[in-house]
Amino acid sequence: MKRILLLGGVTEALAIARTLGPEHVYSLAGVGRVPADLTCQVRVGGYGGSEGLAQFVRAERISLILDATHPYAAQISRNAAEAARACGIPCWALRRPAWQPQPGDDWREVADWAELVEALKPFKRPLFTLGREPLQHLDEIPAEQFWTLRALDVYPSNERCEVIGARGPFLIEDERALFEERRIDVLISKNSGSTATEPKLEVARERGVPVLVLKRPVLAAVHREFTAVPALLQAIAVL
């Protein structure tokens, strides 16, 4: 049986971790809520780049790296692929399919923050669902805009922005109420492909609200890619 290092990040990683025995390692980048029902080992914290990750792999005699990090965590995915290559072991990845626009959607893809700021100019009440990145730009909010920023935790805001701390999954009824109460006229989102956060897109479609979608990064090539947990678990079972 191969010893697996599971790099977590997306919700599906926890479902995988629950199937792993005590010889395997579930690795989380930051301190979070780790369920008490896991039988695998849990490691919290970074590695110091691909070289540090490779050192850990060798020291712990890992024989398979399984990358289940967020689709926008390109650097972590690159480190995983490079560490696996340096250690001569395979790297597999669970990669969610991207959301696809539906009839009635008004999606506008932006490549980076500069493009996003330009695309935001016609709007007054944006809802950011990008995580913590907009927090770095609170002093740049135009006078005619008021931002609503949703992140996993509550962070300090200012008179031009309110930060909401909330974790999915989100109910469509609650998303409708949020859009209505905040008078949201544009949604800013990553294309995470997560069912837990998809209801916001449905509400934007219902209300005719444009969606500024941050372009997905190109991820490192790996030995095998999976788009769903069941197929990945079947592959693990025959290792």
UniProtKB/TrEMBL annotation:
Its EC number is 1.3.1.-, 1.3.1.54. The keyword Oxidoreductase applies. GO terms for molecular function: precorrin-6A reductase activity. Pathway: Cofactor biosynthesis; adenosylcobalamin biosynthesis. Pfam families: CbiJ (PF02571). InterPro entries: Precorrin-6x_reduct. One of its GO terms (biological process) is cobalamin biosynthetic process. It comes from the Bacteria. It is an enzyme of class 1 (oxidoreductase). Keywords: Cobalamin biosynthesis, Oxidoreductase. NCBIfam families: PRK08057.1-2 (NF005968), PRK08057.1-3 (NF005969). This is Cobalt-precorrin-6X reductase. It comes from Pseudomonas libanensis. The lineage of its organism: Bacteria, Pseudomonadati, Pseudomonadota, Gammaproteobacteria, Pseudomonadales.
